[in-house]
Write a structure and sequence with these properties.
This protein is α+β, with helices and mostly antiparallel strands and 628 residues long. It folds into 2 domains: 383 residues, 3-Layer(aba) Sandwich (Beta-lactamase); 146 residues, Jelly Rolls, CATH 2.60.120. The chain is built from 13 helices and 30 strands. The strands form 6 sheets. Strands 4, 5, 6, 7, 13, 14, 15 and 16 form an 8-stranded mixed beta sheet that branches. Strands 17, 19, 22, 23, 25, 27, 28 and 30 form an 8-stranded antiparallel beta sheet that branches. Strands 1, 18, 20, 21, 24, 26 and 29 form a 7-stranded antiparallel beta sheet that branches. Strand 20 and strand 21 form a beta hairpin.
Protein backbone atom coordinates (compact mmCIF):
# COMPACT_ATOMS: atom_id res chain seq x y z
CA UNK A 1 0.00 0.00 0.00
CA UNK A 2 1.30 3.44 -0.87
CA UNK A 3 1.99 5.75 2.06
CA UNK A 4 3.57 9.12 2.73
CA UNK A 5 6.07 10.10 5.37
CA UNK A 6 5.69 13.27 7.40
CA UNK A 7 7.65 16.33 8.22
CA UNK A 8 42.81 2.34 -8.55
CA UNK A 9 45.74 2.04 -6.79
CA UNK A 10 49.05 0.14 -6.40
CA UNK A 11 48.84 -3.50 -7.56
CA UNK A 12 49.64 -6.39 -5.28
CA UNK A 13 50.12 -10.05 -6.14
CA UNK A 14 49.37 -13.09 -4.03
CA UNK A 15 51.17 -16.28 -4.95
CA UNK A 16 50.82 -19.82 -3.73
CA UNK A 17 53.20 -22.58 -4.75
CA UNK A 18 53.01 -23.04 -8.49
CA UNK A 19 50.75 -21.01 -10.75
CA UNK A 20 48.34 -19.50 -8.23
CA UNK A 21 48.21 -15.74 -8.66
CA UNK A 22 45.72 -13.05 -7.76
CA UNK A 23 46.20 -9.44 -8.83
CA UNK A 24 44.00 -6.71 -7.43
CA UNK A 25 43.86 -3.02 -6.70
CA UNK A 26 44.96 -2.16 -3.20
CA UNK A 27 42.32 -0.86 -0.84
CA UNK A 28 42.51 2.89 -0.29
CA UNK A 29 43.20 3.96 3.27
CA UNK A 30 40.03 6.02 3.51
CA UNK A 31 37.93 2.84 3.31
CA UNK A 32 38.29 2.53 7.08
CA UNK A 33 35.10 4.44 7.76
CA UNK A 34 32.60 1.72 8.61
CA UNK A 35 30.96 1.92 12.00
CA UNK A 36 31.72 -1.09 14.20
CA UNK A 37 29.65 -4.09 13.29
CA UNK A 38 27.55 -2.35 10.69
CA UNK A 39 29.36 -2.11 7.38
CA UNK A 40 27.17 0.86 6.57
CA UNK A 41 29.92 3.38 5.88
CA UNK A 42 28.97 5.63 8.82
CA UNK A 43 31.94 7.78 9.80
CA UNK A 44 33.89 6.47 12.80
CA UNK A 45 37.13 7.71 14.34
CA UNK A 46 38.82 4.40 15.12
CA UNK A 47 40.76 2.63 12.36
CA UNK A 48 41.59 -0.96 13.22
CA UNK A 49 42.04 -2.32 9.70
CA UNK A 50 41.83 -1.07 6.11
CA UNK A 51 38.37 -2.63 5.98
CA UNK A 52 37.04 -0.43 8.75
CA UNK A 53 36.85 -1.16 12.46
CA UNK A 54 34.74 -4.24 11.91
CA UNK A 55 36.21 -5.14 8.55
CA UNK A 56 32.87 -4.82 6.84
CA UNK A 57 33.50 -2.39 4.00
CA UNK A 58 35.83 -3.13 1.13
CA UNK A 59 36.13 -1.52 -2.28
CA UNK A 60 38.76 -1.42 -4.93
CA UNK A 61 39.25 2.05 -6.47
CA UNK A 62 37.98 2.06 -10.06
CA UNK A 63 38.35 5.08 -12.35
CA UNK A 64 35.37 7.17 -13.33
CA UNK A 65 33.13 5.41 -15.80
CA UNK A 66 34.48 1.97 -14.95
CA UNK A 67 32.52 -1.05 -13.87
CA UNK A 68 30.90 -1.01 -10.42
CA UNK A 69 33.27 -1.56 -7.49
CA UNK A 70 34.06 -4.98 -6.19
CA UNK A 71 36.14 -6.68 -3.52
CA UNK A 72 38.77 -9.36 -4.00
CA UNK A 73 40.62 -11.78 -1.70
CA UNK A 74 43.53 -9.32 -1.57
CA UNK A 75 41.26 -6.85 0.21
CA UNK A 76 40.47 -9.24 3.07
CA UNK A 77 42.14 -8.49 6.39
CA UNK A 78 42.50 -11.55 8.59
CA UNK A 79 42.09 -11.25 12.34
CA UNK A 80 43.11 -13.54 15.19
CA UNK A 81 39.87 -14.03 17.08
CA UNK A 82 39.22 -16.83 19.54
CA UNK A 83 35.63 -17.95 19.86
CA UNK A 84 33.69 -17.13 23.00
CA UNK A 85 30.06 -16.72 23.90
CA UNK A 86 28.70 -13.22 24.13
CA UNK A 87 25.83 -10.92 23.26
CA UNK A 88 24.74 -9.39 20.01
CA UNK A 89 25.23 -5.87 21.35
CA UNK A 90 28.91 -6.55 22.07
CA UNK A 91 29.62 -6.75 18.36
CA UNK A 92 27.17 -4.12 17.13
CA UNK A 93 24.38 -6.49 16.12
CA UNK A 94 20.65 -6.09 16.59
CA UNK A 95 19.57 -8.43 19.42
CA UNK A 96 16.06 -8.63 18.01
CA UNK A 97 17.22 -9.92 14.66
CA UNK A 98 19.63 -12.42 16.20
CA UNK A 99 16.80 -13.54 18.45
CA UNK A 100 14.64 -14.41 15.45
CA UNK A 101 16.85 -17.31 14.43
CA UNK A 102 15.44 -19.89 16.91
CA UNK A 103 11.84 -19.00 16.08
CA UNK A 104 12.45 -19.12 12.34
CA UNK A 105 14.19 -22.48 12.70
CA UNK A 106 11.31 -23.87 14.76
CA UNK A 107 8.75 -22.75 12.16
CA UNK A 108 10.03 -25.44 9.79
CA UNK A 109 9.38 -28.28 12.22
CA UNK A 110 5.81 -28.38 10.95
CA UNK A 111 4.33 -28.11 7.45
CA UNK A 112 4.65 -24.69 5.84
CA UNK A 113 3.53 -23.26 2.49
CA UNK A 114 6.91 -24.35 1.12
CA UNK A 115 6.40 -27.90 2.43
CA UNK A 116 2.64 -28.29 2.80
CA UNK A 117 2.62 -32.05 3.32
CA UNK A 118 5.39 -32.46 5.87
CA UNK A 119 8.04 -30.61 7.89
CA UNK A 120 11.14 -29.19 6.25
CA UNK A 121 13.25 -31.18 8.71
CA UNK A 122 12.90 -33.11 11.94
CA UNK A 123 15.34 -30.82 13.71
CA UNK A 124 18.17 -28.37 13.28
CA UNK A 125 21.05 -26.61 15.02
CA UNK A 126 22.22 -23.11 14.13
CA UNK A 127 25.28 -21.19 15.27
CA UNK A 128 26.14 -17.60 14.39
CA UNK A 129 29.24 -15.63 15.33
CA UNK A 130 30.82 -12.27 14.60
CA UNK A 131 34.27 -10.99 15.53
CA UNK A 132 34.85 -14.24 17.41
CA UNK A 133 31.72 -13.83 19.54
CA UNK A 134 29.11 -16.59 19.34
CA UNK A 135 25.85 -14.65 19.52
CA UNK A 136 23.48 -17.52 18.76
CA UNK A 137 23.69 -21.29 19.24
CA UNK A 138 20.33 -22.98 19.26
CA UNK A 139 18.78 -26.40 18.70
CA UNK A 140 15.19 -27.17 17.70
CA UNK A 141 13.23 -30.33 17.05
CA UNK A 142 14.47 -33.89 17.15
CA UNK A 143 17.56 -35.78 16.06
CA UNK A 144 15.51 -38.96 15.63
CA UNK A 145 11.79 -38.53 14.95
CA UNK A 146 10.76 -41.31 12.58
CA UNK A 147 10.93 -45.11 12.39
CA UNK A 148 14.35 -46.25 13.58
CA UNK A 149 16.62 -49.10 12.54
CA UNK A 150 14.70 -52.36 12.42
CA UNK A 151 11.30 -50.73 11.94
CA UNK A 152 9.09 -52.36 9.31
CA UNK A 153 8.93 -50.47 6.00
CA UNK A 154 5.43 -49.21 6.59
CA UNK A 155 6.61 -47.39 9.73
CA UNK A 156 9.71 -45.79 8.26
CA UNK A 157 8.01 -42.44 7.73
CA UNK A 158 5.78 -42.62 10.78
CA UNK A 159 6.59 -40.61 13.88
CA UNK A 160 7.94 -42.62 16.76
CA UNK A 161 6.21 -42.38 20.14
CA UNK A 162 7.41 -39.32 22.01
CA UNK A 163 9.41 -41.40 24.49
CA UNK A 164 11.38 -42.98 21.63
CA UNK A 165 12.27 -39.75 19.88
CA UNK A 166 15.64 -38.16 20.59
CA UNK A 167 15.66 -34.38 21.05
CA UNK A 168 18.05 -32.24 19.07
CA UNK A 169 20.87 -30.78 21.16
CA UNK A 170 23.44 -28.09 20.56
CA UNK A 171 26.10 -30.81 20.43
CA UNK A 172 24.20 -33.18 18.12
CA UNK A 173 26.51 -34.75 15.55
CA UNK A 174 25.45 -34.45 11.90
CA UNK A 175 26.39 -36.19 8.69
CA UNK A 176 27.82 -33.21 6.77
CA UNK A 177 27.34 -34.74 3.31
CA UNK A 178 29.06 -32.48 0.74
CA UNK A 179 30.40 -30.08 3.35
CA UNK A 180 32.90 -32.95 3.71
CA UNK A 181 34.40 -31.74 0.42
CA UNK A 182 35.92 -28.79 2.28
CA UNK A 183 37.99 -31.13 4.44
CA UNK A 184 39.32 -32.89 1.34
CA UNK A 185 40.06 -29.50 -0.21
CA UNK A 186 42.05 -28.35 2.81
CA UNK A 187 44.08 -31.56 2.79
CA UNK A 188 44.87 -31.11 -0.91
CA UNK A 189 45.84 -27.46 -0.38
CA UNK A 190 48.17 -28.57 2.41
CA UNK A 191 49.92 -30.87 -0.06
CA UNK A 192 50.25 -27.95 -2.49
CA UNK A 193 51.83 -25.86 0.26
CA UNK A 194 54.33 -28.66 0.92
CA UNK A 195 55.27 -28.92 -2.74
CA UNK A 196 53.87 -32.41 -3.22
CA UNK A 197 51.14 -31.27 -5.61
CA UNK A 198 50.97 -28.57 -8.27
CA UNK A 199 47.62 -26.89 -8.73
CA UNK A 200 47.80 -26.90 -12.52
CA UNK A 201 49.42 -30.29 -12.92
CA UNK A 202 47.39 -33.11 -14.48
CA UNK A 203 45.73 -35.28 -11.86
CA UNK A 204 47.13 -38.25 -13.77
CA UNK A 205 50.64 -37.23 -12.68
CA UNK A 206 49.69 -38.41 -9.20
CA UNK A 207 46.99 -40.96 -10.05
CA UNK A 208 48.01 -42.46 -13.42
CA UNK A 209 44.82 -44.46 -13.97
CA UNK A 210 42.83 -41.22 -13.83
CA UNK A 211 44.00 -40.44 -17.38
CA UNK A 212 41.50 -42.96 -18.77
CA UNK A 213 38.37 -41.68 -20.48
CA UNK A 214 39.90 -38.54 -21.99
CA UNK A 215 41.04 -37.09 -18.64
CA UNK A 216 44.79 -36.91 -19.23
CA UNK A 217 44.74 -33.08 -19.24
CA UNK A 218 42.36 -32.60 -16.32
CA UNK A 219 44.20 -30.60 -13.65
CA UNK A 220 43.95 -30.47 -9.89
CA UNK A 221 42.50 -26.96 -10.19
CA UNK A 222 39.74 -28.22 -12.49
CA UNK A 223 38.65 -30.79 -9.93
CA UNK A 224 38.62 -28.18 -7.17
CA UNK A 225 36.54 -25.79 -9.29
CA UNK A 226 34.28 -28.48 -10.79
CA UNK A 227 35.33 -27.68 -14.34
CA UNK A 228 36.94 -31.01 -15.24
CA UNK A 229 34.18 -32.19 -17.56
CA UNK A 230 33.36 -35.16 -15.33
CA UNK A 231 29.70 -36.07 -14.90
CA UNK A 232 28.07 -35.17 -11.63
CA UNK A 233 27.52 -38.67 -10.29
CA UNK A 234 27.75 -42.39 -10.93
CA UNK A 235 25.92 -45.10 -8.91
CA UNK A 236 29.10 -46.84 -7.79
CA UNK A 237 27.42 -48.46 -4.81
CA UNK A 238 24.94 -50.43 -6.90
CA UNK A 239 27.04 -51.03 -10.01
CA UNK A 240 30.14 -52.72 -8.57
CA UNK A 241 30.46 -55.43 -5.90
CA UNK A 242 33.52 -54.31 -3.91
CA UNK A 243 35.01 -51.05 -2.62
CA UNK A 244 38.12 -51.56 -4.74
CA UNK A 245 36.09 -51.99 -7.92
CA UNK A 246 33.93 -48.99 -7.07
CA UNK A 247 36.95 -46.77 -6.56
CA UNK A 248 38.56 -47.99 -9.75
CA UNK A 249 35.35 -47.25 -11.64
CA UNK A 250 35.21 -43.73 -10.20
CA UNK A 251 38.75 -43.02 -11.38
CA UNK A 252 38.09 -44.53 -14.82
CA UNK A 253 34.85 -42.60 -15.42
CA UNK A 254 35.18 -40.82 -18.78
CA UNK A 255 34.45 -37.18 -19.40
CA UNK A 256 30.84 -36.33 -20.15
CA UNK A 257 29.96 -36.40 -23.84
CA UNK A 258 31.27 -33.30 -25.59
CA UNK A 259 33.00 -31.96 -22.48
CA UNK A 260 36.18 -29.91 -22.77
CA UNK A 261 38.17 -29.75 -19.53
CA UNK A 262 38.26 -26.28 -18.02
CA UNK A 263 35.46 -24.78 -20.10
CA UNK A 264 32.26 -25.53 -18.20
CA UNK A 265 31.09 -25.88 -14.61
CA UNK A 266 29.41 -29.15 -13.61
CA UNK A 267 29.34 -29.96 -9.90
CA UNK A 268 30.87 -33.43 -9.58
CA UNK A 269 31.18 -35.84 -6.68
CA UNK A 270 33.50 -37.93 -8.82
CA UNK A 271 36.07 -35.14 -8.97
CA UNK A 272 36.30 -34.96 -5.19
CA UNK A 273 36.53 -38.73 -4.91
CA UNK A 274 39.56 -38.47 -7.20
CA UNK A 275 41.08 -35.70 -5.08
CA UNK A 276 40.75 -37.87 -1.99
CA UNK A 277 42.67 -40.60 -3.79
CA UNK A 278 45.27 -38.07 -4.96
CA UNK A 279 45.89 -36.95 -1.37
CA UNK A 280 46.35 -40.55 -0.30
CA UNK A 281 48.76 -41.32 -3.15
CA UNK A 282 51.09 -38.35 -2.60
CA UNK A 283 51.27 -38.90 1.16
CA UNK A 284 50.95 -42.67 1.43
CA UNK A 285 48.34 -42.19 4.15
CA UNK A 286 44.55 -42.75 4.37
CA UNK A 287 42.33 -39.73 3.82
CA UNK A 288 40.76 -40.09 7.27
CA UNK A 289 44.20 -39.80 8.87
CA UNK A 290 45.09 -36.79 6.74
CA UNK A 291 41.90 -35.00 7.79
CA UNK A 292 42.48 -35.91 11.42
CA UNK A 293 46.13 -34.88 11.58
CA UNK A 294 45.87 -31.92 9.23
CA UNK A 295 42.56 -30.38 10.28
CA UNK A 296 40.58 -31.77 13.19
CA UNK A 297 43.40 -32.56 15.64
CA UNK A 298 45.22 -29.21 15.37
CA UNK A 299 41.90 -27.37 15.64
CA UNK A 300 40.77 -29.70 18.46
CA UNK A 301 37.57 -30.57 16.64
CA UNK A 302 37.01 -33.58 18.87
CA UNK A 303 33.54 -34.42 17.54
CA UNK A 304 34.56 -34.39 13.87
CA UNK A 305 35.62 -37.29 11.68
CA UNK A 306 34.54 -40.25 9.58
CA UNK A 307 32.68 -43.34 10.82
CA UNK A 308 31.70 -42.15 14.30
CA UNK A 309 32.07 -44.64 17.12
CA UNK A 310 28.96 -46.67 18.05
CA UNK A 311 28.85 -45.15 21.53
CA UNK A 312 28.18 -41.75 19.96
CA UNK A 313 25.01 -42.91 18.25
CA UNK A 314 22.65 -41.33 20.77
CA UNK A 315 24.13 -37.94 19.85
CA UNK A 316 23.87 -38.43 16.08
CA UNK A 317 21.02 -37.12 13.93
CA UNK A 318 19.34 -39.85 11.89
CA UNK A 319 19.04 -39.40 8.15
CA UNK A 320 17.12 -41.46 5.60
CA UNK A 321 15.31 -44.76 5.38
CA UNK A 322 17.12 -46.64 2.58
CA UNK A 323 15.52 -50.06 2.07
CA UNK A 324 16.64 -50.06 -1.57
CA UNK A 325 20.24 -50.26 -0.31
CA UNK A 326 19.39 -52.81 2.38
CA UNK A 327 20.19 -50.30 5.12
CA UNK A 328 16.94 -49.47 6.87
CA UNK A 329 16.98 -46.13 8.70
CA UNK A 330 20.47 -44.69 8.36
CA UNK A 331 21.66 -43.53 11.74
CA UNK A 332 25.30 -43.22 12.70
CA UNK A 333 26.56 -44.18 9.23
CA UNK A 334 27.19 -41.92 6.26
CA UNK A 335 24.02 -41.24 4.28
CA UNK A 336 25.66 -40.96 0.85
CA UNK A 337 25.42 -44.38 -0.76
CA UNK A 338 28.70 -44.12 -2.64
CA UNK A 339 30.66 -43.01 0.43
CA UNK A 340 29.01 -45.78 2.47
CA UNK A 341 29.95 -48.36 -0.15
CA UNK A 342 33.56 -47.14 -0.03
CA UNK A 343 33.79 -47.82 3.68
CA UNK A 344 32.46 -44.50 4.97
CA UNK A 345 35.48 -42.44 3.90
CA UNK A 346 35.55 -40.65 0.55
CA UNK A 347 36.67 -37.32 -0.84
CA UNK A 348 33.13 -36.12 -1.47
CA UNK A 349 31.26 -37.22 1.68
CA UNK A 350 31.59 -39.01 4.99
CA UNK A 351 32.56 -36.41 7.59
CA UNK A 352 30.41 -36.05 10.73
CA UNK A 353 30.63 -32.96 12.93
CA UNK A 354 28.86 -30.55 15.28
CA UNK A 355 28.05 -26.87 14.93
CA UNK A 356 30.62 -26.02 17.61
CA UNK A 357 33.40 -27.88 15.82
CA UNK A 358 32.52 -26.31 12.48
CA UNK A 359 32.58 -22.91 14.18
CA UNK A 360 36.25 -23.47 14.96
CA UNK A 361 36.93 -24.36 11.32
CA UNK A 362 35.10 -21.24 10.12
CA UNK A 363 36.95 -19.02 12.58
CA UNK A 364 40.29 -20.51 11.57
CA UNK A 365 39.57 -19.51 7.96
CA UNK A 366 38.55 -16.00 9.03
CA UNK A 367 41.87 -15.89 10.88
CA UNK A 368 43.75 -16.74 7.70
CA UNK A 369 44.14 -20.46 8.41
CA UNK A 370 45.05 -20.33 12.10
CA UNK A 371 43.28 -20.81 15.43
CA UNK A 372 44.75 -20.48 18.92
CA UNK A 373 48.23 -20.52 17.48
CA UNK A 374 47.71 -23.70 15.47
CA UNK A 375 47.90 -23.21 11.72
CA UNK A 376 46.26 -25.46 9.11
CA UNK A 377 46.75 -23.21 6.06
CA UNK A 378 48.87 -20.19 5.18
CA UNK A 379 47.06 -16.85 4.77
CA UNK A 380 48.02 -16.69 1.10
CA UNK A 381 46.52 -20.14 0.61
CA UNK A 382 43.21 -19.06 2.09
CA UNK A 383 43.17 -16.01 -0.19
CA UNK A 384 43.92 -18.16 -3.22
CA UNK A 385 41.00 -20.42 -2.31
CA UNK A 386 38.62 -17.45 -2.48
CA UNK A 387 39.37 -16.34 -6.04
CA UNK A 388 36.49 -16.93 -8.47
CA UNK A 389 38.36 -19.06 -10.98
CA UNK A 390 35.19 -19.70 -12.97
CA UNK A 391 34.40 -16.09 -13.82
CA UNK A 392 35.71 -16.45 -17.37
CA UNK A 393 34.04 -19.71 -18.30
CA UNK A 394 32.22 -20.01 -21.61
CA UNK A 395 29.05 -20.72 -19.66
CA UNK A 396 29.63 -18.58 -16.56
CA UNK A 397 26.53 -18.02 -14.45
CA UNK A 398 25.94 -17.35 -10.73
CA UNK A 399 25.91 -21.01 -9.74
CA UNK A 400 29.32 -21.51 -11.35
CA UNK A 401 31.14 -19.00 -9.11
CA UNK A 402 33.78 -21.09 -7.36
CA UNK A 403 37.03 -20.77 -5.55
CA UNK A 404 39.19 -23.77 -4.74
CA UNK A 405 36.65 -26.05 -3.09
CA UNK A 406 34.48 -23.22 -1.83
CA UNK A 407 31.26 -21.87 -3.28
CA UNK A 408 31.36 -18.08 -3.64
CA UNK A 409 28.69 -15.38 -3.53
CA UNK A 410 25.65 -17.69 -3.49
CA UNK A 411 22.67 -15.56 -2.54
CA UNK A 412 20.35 -18.56 -2.72
CA UNK A 413 21.59 -19.60 0.70
CA UNK A 414 23.96 -16.79 1.79
CA UNK A 415 21.41 -13.96 1.36
CA UNK A 416 22.65 -10.65 2.76
CA UNK A 417 25.92 -12.17 3.95
CA UNK A 418 26.90 -12.71 0.33
CA UNK A 419 29.68 -10.78 -1.38
CA UNK A 420 32.26 -11.59 -4.06
CA UNK A 421 34.46 -13.10 -1.32
CA UNK A 422 31.83 -14.69 0.91
CA UNK A 423 32.39 -18.43 0.89
CA UNK A 424 30.68 -21.58 2.05
CA UNK A 425 29.21 -24.91 1.07
CA UNK A 426 26.03 -26.93 1.41
CA UNK A 427 25.41 -30.61 2.07
CA UNK A 428 22.63 -32.85 0.75
CA UNK A 429 21.55 -33.94 4.23
CA UNK A 430 20.58 -30.35 5.07
CA UNK A 431 23.85 -28.83 6.20
CA UNK A 432 25.49 -25.53 5.25
CA UNK A 433 27.95 -22.92 6.36
CA UNK A 434 28.40 -19.31 5.23
CA UNK A 435 31.54 -17.31 6.03
CA UNK A 436 31.65 -13.56 5.37
CA UNK A 437 35.22 -12.28 5.73
CA UNK A 438 34.15 -8.65 5.27
CA UNK A 439 32.06 -8.62 8.45
CA UNK A 440 34.21 -11.30 10.13
CA UNK A 441 31.12 -13.39 10.67
CA UNK A 442 29.72 -16.81 9.87
CA UNK A 443 26.53 -18.78 10.27
CA UNK A 444 26.16 -22.55 10.37
CA UNK A 445 22.95 -24.51 9.82
CA UNK A 446 22.87 -28.25 10.39
CA UNK A 447 19.64 -30.16 9.85
CA UNK A 448 18.50 -33.69 9.12
CA UNK A 449 16.22 -32.68 6.28
CA UNK A 450 16.44 -36.14 4.60
CA UNK A 451 14.98 -37.77 7.73
CA UNK A 452 13.08 -39.90 6.87
CA UNK A 453 12.91 -39.27 3.10
CA UNK A 454 14.93 -37.08 0.72
CA UNK A 455 11.82 -36.73 -1.40
CA UNK A 456 10.32 -34.44 1.21
CA UNK A 457 12.29 -31.59 -0.32
CA UNK A 458 15.16 -29.22 0.37
CA UNK A 459 15.74 -26.97 3.36
CA UNK A 460 16.82 -23.98 1.28
CA UNK A 461 14.04 -21.87 2.77
CA UNK A 462 15.53 -22.43 6.22
CA UNK A 463 19.05 -21.75 4.97
CA UNK A 464 17.87 -18.43 3.59
CA UNK A 465 15.91 -17.59 6.73
CA UNK A 466 18.89 -18.06 9.04
CA UNK A 467 21.29 -16.16 6.77
CA UNK A 468 18.73 -13.38 6.31
CA UNK A 469 18.16 -13.04 10.05
CA UNK A 470 21.87 -12.80 10.73
CA UNK A 471 22.51 -10.35 7.89
CA UNK A 472 19.59 -8.18 9.01
CA UNK A 473 21.19 -8.05 12.46
CA UNK A 474 23.97 -5.94 10.91
CA UNK A 475 22.13 -2.62 10.63
CA UNK A 476 22.54 -0.20 7.77
CA UNK A 477 22.50 3.14 9.53
CA UNK A 478 20.92 6.10 7.70
CA UNK A 479 23.18 9.09 7.12
CA UNK A 480 20.43 11.35 8.43
CA UNK A 481 17.85 10.62 11.10
CA UNK A 482 15.67 8.71 8.68
CA UNK A 483 16.07 7.04 5.29
CA UNK A 484 13.87 4.99 3.00
CA UNK A 485 14.35 1.26 2.52
CA UNK A 486 12.81 -0.95 -0.17
CA UNK A 487 10.79 -3.64 1.59
CA UNK A 488 12.52 -7.05 1.27
CA UNK A 489 9.79 -8.81 -0.69
CA UNK A 490 10.28 -11.67 -3.13
CA UNK A 491 9.02 -11.43 -6.71
CA UNK A 492 8.05 -7.79 -6.36
CA UNK A 493 8.68 -4.32 -7.73
CA UNK A 494 8.40 -1.57 -5.15
CA UNK A 495 8.69 2.14 -5.84
CA UNK A 496 9.57 5.36 -4.07
CA UNK A 497 8.30 8.38 -6.02
CA UNK A 498 9.32 11.99 -5.46
CA UNK A 499 7.19 14.67 -7.19
CA UNK A 500 9.15 17.85 -7.86
CA UNK A 501 7.73 21.19 -6.74
CA UNK A 502 7.55 22.35 -10.35
CA UNK A 503 8.84 21.21 -13.77
CA UNK A 504 12.61 21.40 -13.83
CA UNK A 505 14.62 23.72 -16.04
CA UNK A 506 17.50 21.28 -16.30
CA UNK A 507 19.37 21.09 -13.01
CA UNK A 508 20.61 18.16 -10.96
CA UNK A 509 19.37 15.62 -8.47
CA UNK A 510 21.56 14.37 -5.63
CA UNK A 511 20.89 11.65 -3.08
CA UNK A 512 22.60 9.15 -0.81
CA UNK A 513 22.33 5.54 -1.86
CA UNK A 514 23.16 2.19 -0.23
CA UNK A 515 22.52 -1.01 -2.15
CA UNK A 516 23.29 -4.70 -1.93
CA UNK A 517 21.20 -6.97 -4.16
CA UNK A 518 21.39 -10.41 -5.70
CA UNK A 519 23.52 -9.79 -8.82
CA UNK A 520 21.78 -10.08 -12.17
CA UNK A 521 18.43 -11.08 -10.68
CA UNK A 522 17.55 -8.17 -8.36
CA UNK A 523 18.15 -4.53 -9.21
CA UNK A 524 17.16 -0.95 -8.52
CA UNK A 525 16.41 1.51 -11.30
CA UNK A 526 16.42 5.29 -10.87
CA UNK A 527 13.96 6.94 -13.26
CA UNK A 528 12.66 10.33 -14.27
CA UNK A 529 9.35 11.44 -15.73
CA UNK A 530 8.68 14.56 -17.78
CA UNK A 531 4.93 14.05 -18.10
CA UNK A 532 3.66 13.94 -14.55
CA UNK A 533 4.48 10.27 -13.97
CA UNK A 534 2.72 8.84 -17.02
CA UNK A 535 5.95 7.48 -18.52
CA UNK A 536 9.44 6.93 -17.14
CA UNK A 537 12.99 6.90 -18.48
CA UNK A 538 16.22 5.79 -16.77
CA UNK A 539 18.31 8.55 -15.24
CA UNK A 540 22.06 8.35 -15.83
CA UNK A 541 23.92 8.33 -12.51
CA UNK A 542 27.39 9.17 -11.25
CA UNK A 543 28.20 7.47 -7.94
CA UNK A 544 30.98 8.75 -5.67
CA UNK A 545 32.42 7.55 -2.38
CA UNK A 546 35.67 8.93 -1.03
CA UNK A 547 37.96 9.08 -4.05
CA UNK A 548 36.02 6.49 -6.03
CA UNK A 549 33.60 7.32 -8.86
CA UNK A 550 31.72 5.27 -11.41
CA UNK A 551 28.70 5.77 -13.62
CA UNK A 552 25.53 3.83 -14.34
CA UNK A 553 22.86 3.97 -17.00
CA UNK A 554 20.29 4.19 -14.20
CA UNK A 555 20.20 0.57 -13.07
CA UNK A 556 22.44 -0.92 -10.39
CA UNK A 557 22.65 -4.48 -9.15
CA UNK A 558 24.86 -6.64 -6.96
CA UNK A 559 27.52 -5.75 -4.44
CA UNK A 560 27.63 -2.07 -3.56
CA UNK A 561 30.61 -2.12 -1.23
CA UNK A 562 28.45 -1.92 1.91
CA UNK A 563 28.93 1.85 1.92
CA UNK A 564 26.79 4.90 1.28
CA UNK A 565 27.28 6.43 -2.16
CA UNK A 566 26.78 10.07 -3.08
CA UNK A 567 24.80 10.00 -6.33
CA UNK A 568 24.27 12.84 -8.78
CA UNK A 569 22.25 12.99 -11.99
CA UNK A 570 21.46 15.66 -14.56
CA UNK A 571 17.75 16.32 -14.88
CA UNK A 572 16.14 16.69 -18.28
CA UNK A 573 14.12 19.76 -19.15
CA UNK A 574 10.56 19.63 -17.81
CA UNK A 575 11.29 16.81 -15.35
CA UNK A 576 8.36 16.44 -12.96
CA UNK A 577 9.07 13.28 -10.92
CA UNK A 578 11.90 11.07 -9.73
CA UNK A 579 11.39 7.40 -8.91
CA UNK A 580 13.41 4.58 -7.34
CA UNK A 581 12.13 1.20 -8.51
CA UNK A 582 13.48 -1.91 -6.76
CA UNK A 583 12.75 -5.31 -8.35
CA UNK A 584 13.38 -8.79 -6.96
CA UNK A 585 13.01 -12.33 -8.25
CA UNK A 586 11.17 -15.20 -6.57
CA UNK A 587 13.79 -15.84 -3.87
CA UNK A 588 17.17 -14.78 -2.52
CA UNK A 589 18.06 -11.19 -1.68
CA UNK A 590 20.96 -9.09 -0.51
CA UNK A 591 21.07 -6.61 2.37
CA UNK A 592 18.70 -4.26 0.58
CA UNK A 593 18.30 -0.83 -1.02
CA UNK A 594 18.29 2.48 0.89
CA UNK A 595 17.82 6.10 -0.22
CA UNK A 596 18.51 9.14 1.94
CA UNK A 597 18.80 12.95 1.67
CA UNK A 598 17.27 13.61 -1.74
CA UNK A 599 17.89 17.12 -3.07
CA UNK A 600 17.02 18.40 -6.54
CA UNK A 601 17.56 21.93 -7.83
CA UNK A 602 17.83 23.94 -11.02
CA UNK A 603 18.93 27.49 -11.75
CA UNK A 604 15.70 28.83 -10.30
CA UNK A 605 16.12 27.13 -6.94
CA UNK A 606 15.08 24.02 -5.05
CA UNK A 607 12.89 21.41 -6.69
CA UNK A 608 12.91 18.91 -3.83
CA UNK A 609 14.45 18.51 -0.38
CA UNK A 610 13.46 15.26 1.34
CA UNK A 611 14.51 16.50 4.78
CA UNK A 612 12.59 19.74 4.55
CA UNK A 613 9.05 20.65 3.67
CA UNK A 614 9.02 18.10 0.83
CA UNK A 615 9.31 15.12 3.18
CA UNK A 616 5.60 14.51 2.98
CA UNK A 617 5.58 14.63 -0.82
CA UNK A 618 7.41 11.33 -1.24
CA UNK A 619 5.08 8.44 -2.09
CA UNK A 620 6.24 4.99 -0.99
CA UNK A 621 4.71 1.88 -2.49
CA UNK A 622 6.57 -0.96 -0.81
CA UNK A 623 9.21 1.23 0.83
CA UNK A 624 9.46 1.86 4.57
CA UNK A 625 11.17 4.27 6.89
CA UNK A 626 14.58 3.24 8.25
CA UNK A 627 15.85 5.09 11.31
CA UNK A 628 19.23 5.52 12.97
Amino acid sequence: MAHRRSGAGRLRTITLGLAVAVTTAALPSHAATAAPGTGDGTAHQESVSPLGSAGTSALARPPVGSEPPTVTPSDIRFRHDTLRRGTAREVGLSPGQVGRIPDDLAAYLEPTPDHPGHPTYAGAVALAAKDGVIVQHTAVGTAVRYGAVGAPPELAGVELPADQQIPMRQDTIFDLASVSKLFTTIVVMQQIERGRVSLDAPVARYVPEFAAGGKAEVSVRMLLTHTSGLPAFAPLWSSYPTPAERLAAALATPLAAGATPGSRYVYSDLGLIALGVLAERVTGRPLADLVRDGVTAPLRMTDTGYNPAPQLRSRIAATEYQPYAGRGMVWGEVHDENAWSLGGVAGHAGVFSTAADLAVLCQSLLNGGEYRGRRILRPETVRAMLVNYNAGLETAYPESDRGLGFELDKHWYMMGLSSPVTFGHTGFTGTSLVVDPLSHSFVILLSNRVHPDRGWGSNNVARRAVARDFAEAMPVRPRTSEAWRADPRDAATVTLTAPLRRPARGGTANFLFWYDTEPRFDSVRVEVSTDGGATWEPLRLVLSQGGRRWSSDGTVSGYGGRVWWQVSAELPERATHLRWSSSTDVSSQGRGVYVDRIIAADRDGLLLHSEGRDAGRLVADGWSSARS
